[in-house]
Amino acid sequence: MSIDSREAAASLNDIADVERRTRRAFFYFGSSTIFVVWGVLVACGYAIAEWYPRSAQISWLTVSLVGCAATVAIIALRAPARGFGTRDWRLVWAAVVLIAYGTGWAYVLGPIIPRPMIYAFEPSLMMLGIVLAGLWLGRFFLILGLVGAALIALGMLQSGSWLTLWMAVVQSGTLIVGGLWLRKIGVAR
C-alpha cells in the first residue's frame, strides 16, 4: 500500500490540527486555575476594601502582588509537564505589565477621580487584558472580556450605593465562571 503526496500532506495536516487542539485544551485547563485564583483574590480585595476602607490601598496592592506571584507559580508548576521551553512567557509578562500599569494609575488618580470611576477602572482594565488575550488565544477569552466590560459599563451607568458590590460580583464572577468553564473544556495533564 502506498500513499501519494497529497494524502501524506493531508495526514500531516490532520496530525498538526490534533496537536494544536490538544495544546489548546491543556492551556485552557491551566488557565482555569489562574482565572479562579484571580476571581477569589479580587473578591477578597473588594471585601477587605469594603470592611476596612482605610486599608484599601494596601489590600489592593497585596491582591495584585499575590495574584501575579500565584500566576507565575501556577505556570511554573505546570511547566515540567509541558516542557519548560515550550512556554511563551510574553503573554504572562504582558498581563503583569497591564496589572502594574493599572495599579500605578489607580494610586496616582485615586485621590483625584471620583470613587465610582476608580472602582470601574481596574476591572475594565482587567477585562481589556482578557479581550486582548482573546485576539491570540481564542474566541472564549474575547467574549468573556467583552461581556465583563459590558457589565462593568452597565454598573457605571446605574451607579448607586451598590456599585462596589456590583463590581465585586462582575469582576470576580466573570473570572470564576470563566475559569470553571475553561476547566470544563480543558484537559488536565
Structural commentary:
- The chain is mainly alpha-helical and 189 residues long.
- It has one domain (5-185).
- Helix content is 84%, strand content 0%.
- The chain is built from 6 helices and no strands.
- It has helices at 5-51, 56-82, 90-109, 115-137, 139-157, 163-185.
- It is elongated and about 75 Å long.
- It starts with a helix and ends with a helix.
- The mean pLDDT is 80.
Shape: elongated
Let me know the largest β-sheet: none
- Helix proportion: over 70%
Q: Count of DSSP helices?
A: 6
Q: What is the strand content?
A: under 5%
User: What does the average pLDDT come to?
Assistant: 80
The N- to C-terminal Cα distance equals 37 Å
- In angstroms, what is the radius of gyration? 20 Å
Secondary structure category: mainly alpha
Number of domains: 1
H/E element sequence: HHHHHH
Number of strand segments: 0
Low-pLDDT stretches are: none
In short:
The chain has 189 residues and is mostly helical. The protein has helices spanning 5-51, 56-82, 90-109, 115-137, 139-157, 163-185.
List the helices and strands and how they pair.
Blueprint: H1 5-51, H2 56-82, H3 90-109, H4 115-137, H5 139-157, H6 163-185
